[in-house]
Structure formats: structure tokens, C-alpha cells
Amino acid sequence: VSAEVWGVSCGLGPFRTPANRVRGSPKGDGPTSHGETEWNAGAQVPGVRTATPQPRPPRVRRTHDGYRHEAFLWDGAEQFLAGTVPFIREGLAAAQPVMAALTPARIDLLRDALGDDAAEVQFVDMVELGANPARIIPAWRRFTDAHTRSGGAVRGIGEPIWHGRRPAELVECQLHEALLNQAVDPDTALWLLCPYDVAALSGDVIAEAHRSHPVVVEVEKHRGSTSYGGAHHVGAMFESDLPLVEVAVSQRMLERSDLATARADVAAHALSAGLPMERADELALAVHEVVVNALEHGGGRGELRIWEEDQALVCEVRDSGHIPDPMVGRRAPDWHDERGRGLWMANQLCDLVQVRSGDAGTTVRIHSWL
């Protein structure tokens, strides 16, 4: 395996995002969980007019000494800027590094509103970073590790969900949001704000945001979420079955003697579906690693199914084993963790990887966009 594949964990460079794989990129547009003073997300932003200006009490500088994960519900550019610009500027004023991982349209909006302050913010294109949602948590880990080791605090804005994402991507983004509550140590001084465009996203998506965030922020409100699911919600999502696909182009039961045949079969289907040779080889390698794990940890037998759907080639591996860690494949693995290493590699090589594991066994579904 090339060093490029392992660049995220070894510090050799950024993850790989092959061209022309992203769809749905936008072209335009109470007491806190830590008992701190409520903040005013509707504060006036220079150059932006609020719809109904009202007298407000003196601003209280917001601070944090632990992890905070909040959903920010907004409708229109004015509300978006009213909730994000003060959040960023207060962080900068407190010498807190700020990373904003957003869609390009939202990055442009923020840069214009921040003016000279924009140069102090680490902007990240979420359409690129979050093309595979499993790559987002490692990016937040790198950011916090780089800036909090000396005891400092950091702030982040992360927008993994936007209108137009594929259904399978959306499901994995929602799992990602729920996993963020377990992925970051409570003592890590990261304040993470996750914007949700209520005008463009469905009611079901907003309801799920309430379940995956301890705190929900609106323009004039900042309150604890009454439907927050915590660890139980993560477990329920990870243990749930993926939607069953009845029709498969190829289906075979696997034993260790079938590894070479299965890898060749995946590569042949990938080329037939129109994937370039390099991507076909990457998919075959990723499926090979997952199959090896299935055979070693799933009782010596597994099942491989291949089909096409929604402009994607999908390879699914099933086995009877159980993975207890829902973060598998989303954190850089120990070299001795073979199962974690294989799924990490699959996430670096492929467009989308879905993992579900419960009493009935484990399913890994790998998507390659056509």
C-alpha cells in the first residue's frame, strides 16, 4: 500500500479525493450545556441587516474549557452570518484558533463578512473533505491535536450536511454527527458549531440534528435538545440494518481460497461499469482488505455482492462477526488492529463506506460513484 493511502495517519499529506466524484455541491446559498451565560446568535453583523433589530443586553464573552457540540439552525444569509461571524470573532479575540469546514458558497459568504479577520481562519472545503463523511472526524482530530496540546481552546464550524447529497451520503453524515459526541474527549476544549439550512433541508433531517446534538442554536435561542440521543442513539444507528437490495449483478459465498477470484471479479465489474483502471484497482484493493477481515473475524466465511444503483457501483461484504466499536474506520488504527486498518484503508480509497454491525453480523457496503 502506498504512503499516499496512509498520508492522513502518518502526516505525509492530505487524504486523496479523486476528481469528478462529488455531487450536490451548493451553488448558492436556554442555558447552555455547560451552564454558561446564554449567547445571542442574532447579534448585528457589520454590513448585514437583521430583519427585526431589538435592544439587547451587553454581550458576554463566551468561553469553554471542554467539548461542546451544537447544531445551528439558520434560514437565509443574514441568519447564517449573524450566528457564525460573532462566534468566529469572539474566538479570534480570545486567541482561539478557528477552523471552518463549509461548502464553498458559505466560505465565500463568511470571507466577505469577516473582512481582514478571514485571514486568521482556517477554511476547509467541506465538499472535498466530507465527500466521504468518514474522513471528517480525523480532520477535526488533527486540528485539535495541533492546537490544544498546550491547554488552549479552539473553535470549529462544520457543515457536513447540505441539500443535494446522495441518500447514502446523508445517512453516513447523520451517523458522523452522532459519532462526534463520542469521538472527542469531553475535556478537549473544542467548541464545534454545525450549521443546518432549515430552508433547504427536510424536516426529517432537522429532527435528526436535534437527536445528534446536545445543544440546538437558533437566531434568538440557545437551548439543550430535548430529543438528544447520546450513546444509545449511536448504538441504534450502528446496529441497524442497511436497506436490503434484492437484485445483485454478482453474488458469491467466500472462503480464503476465493480471495484472488473475488478481487479479480471486483476489478472486472468496476472496469465494465466505466471506472478508470486506477479507481478499479483501488476498489478491488479495498474490497480485498474488507473480505480478508470478514474471513478472519467472521467465522471463516463471508458473502460478496455487487450491483449498480444511482450512478454507483456497490460492493457489499457480509459476515457473521461483530464489531463493537462504531468508530471503526474513522480513526487512524494501530498497526496491529487488522480489522480497523482494512476499513480505514477502504475509507481513504473509496467514495463512501457504510459499516453496520449487530447480533446478526457485520455488513460493509462500499460505493464508487460512476
Written overview of the protein:
Helix content is 36%, strand content 20%. It contains eleven helices and twelve strands. Strand 6 and strand 7 (221-224) form a beta hairpin. The chain is elongated. It starts with 6 loop residues before the first helix and ends with a strand.
Topology of helices and strands:
Elements: H1 7-10, E1 68-74, H2 77-93, E2 98-102, H3 104-114, E3 121-125, H4 126-129, H5 136-148, E4 154-158, H6 167-183, E5 190-197, H7 203-212, E6 215-218, E7 221-224, H8 230-239, E8 250-254, H9 259-273, H10 277-297, E9 302-309, E10 312-319, H11 338-349, E11 352-358, E12 361-369
Parallel strand pairs: 1-5, 1-6, 2-3, 2-4, 4-5
Antiparallel strand pairs: 6-7, 8-9, 9-10, 10-12, 11-12
Strand arrangement, major sheet: 3-2-4-5-1-6-7
Structural class given helices, strands, pairing?
alpha/beta
Strand residue content: 15-25%
**What sequence of helices (H) and strands (E) makes up the elements?**
HEHEHEHHEHEHEEHEHHEEHEE
| Count of DSSP-assigned helices | 11
The overall strand count is 12
Largest sheet geometry: 7 strands, mixed
Q: Tell me, rounded to a whole number, the average pLDDT.
A: 85
Which blocks of ≥5 consecutive residues have pLDDT under 50? 1-61
Apparent shape: elongated
The residue fraction in helices comes out at 25-40%
**From the alpha-carbon coordinates, what is the Rg to the nearest angstrom?**
22 Å
Distance separating the two termini: 24 Å
